[in-house]
What we know:
Helix content: 25-40%
Number of domains: 2
Radius of gyration: 30 Å
CATH architecture of the largest domain: 2-Layer Sandwich
Number of strands: 18
Amino acid sequence: MSDPKSGKKPQKLKARMPRGLADRGPAEIAATRAMVETIRKTFDLYGFEPVETPTFEYTDALGKFLPDQDRPNEGVFSFQDDDEQWISLRYDLTAPLARYVAENYQHLALPYRSYRNGYVYRNEKPGPGRFRQFMQFDADTVGSASMAADAEMCMLAADTMEALGIKRGDYVVKVNNRKLLDGLLDMIGLGGEANAGKRLTVLRAIDKLDRLGIAGVKELLGEGRKDESGDFTKGAGLNGDQVDVVLQFVSPTEPTANYKGDALLTLPDKFERTPLFNEGVKEIEEIRSLIEGAGYFPERVRIDQTVVRGLEYYTGPVYEVELTFEVKDEKGRPVRFGSVGGGGRYDGLVSRFMGQPVPATGFSIGVSRLQAALTALGKLPSKPEPGPVVVTIMDRDNVAAYQRMVSELRNAGIRTELYLGNPKNNVGQQLKYADKRSSPCAIIQGSDERTAGQVIIKDLILGAELAAENASDREDYLKKQAEAQFSVNEADLVAEVRKVLARHGRA
Length: 507
């Protein structure tokens, strides 16, 4: 139809998705449910309790920790409400928790131990495996300055990986301390507020070590780096000596069975240590002692001075969970998933609202990335949950009778739907629909069956197996054929459907 005013045909709206987002189907959603429930049980075991915070927060409550930009809508998705207040989509689950704790501080049992999961949003350049919306699952302890709280987060991370089916040796929890890194930067002349921006650039460069390697980090510590797409990222602008010191400190070391984090004590000896650096060494040694005493060190949790974590608000210990196994992609190429979670101590985040020190530490799992790894390992279901029983319609003048069957099955706790497609479709077309829905069985009742008080149950799973078989035993084939489609009294409908579901492990 044309527009009578312009004479032009109206343009059809193009269905398209914004970059950096993804649709999710039944199979993925079923896998997420299974995974999230396992994580929840592990966090419950540690005594954490659930809490939910909104998807939106005032932008100043989130803080300008991600990224280091001048405008409030850089790095986060932001808008102004009718009061002209800036509001942003949360970029993680930690900053909203800090606001929640500050707002409810007088009513919480301290230390406050909580967990939460949900989607977070980053207004960043999307790329392979890098999305603008992704799910996280966090646990936090607020109100404890003890290194035991940080050690516990590392042990929780390890236990969660194993609860999800990742065997020991296929993951490692790596621990470092931002005080070590900040102290190191003080040693090379990057102390003070005037160097805050440069320090953050250095930390973010180090944080990319596992992805870019030493050569890529060296470029980011210097003038900058051009990526494969041609985009240029400005570097920290360190001189040659400064770059050498940083790279010497963060160059990966291979831990051994008796590794005690000695590199942290000996590597920077030619520099004058700062009190902050020494404090970091003391804290990391305390964590090492705790995790070693609990039997997690060094096989499951180990010290690694390359760990940074990209968020600016970390103030002490930081930790990261890395998957160490390889899988093959669809083209047979080796793929490593790398980091699937992390966290650290953020003693200043809640304090911004309180005007008093409030120590806190937390751990976050990247659910979306970890799910991809678990699916590749075969640890999560790759198929959607079984479809519903489908009640077909043979007589359009008696739809109410079919609806009664549906209600009877649903009241018995059996997932069921009434065929609501094209009313002209015959039973064969309706059964094809049921097959596409992965239905275990379909219910059929024509006028003859209704008169006799009967219904036909068609076992679609067994029927598909029979169709694929090369029948050599006629007697066995006829027996299965009788089981694949049979008549029952209407009064026995629920019981007989349950038998079919039990036959296929779906009761």
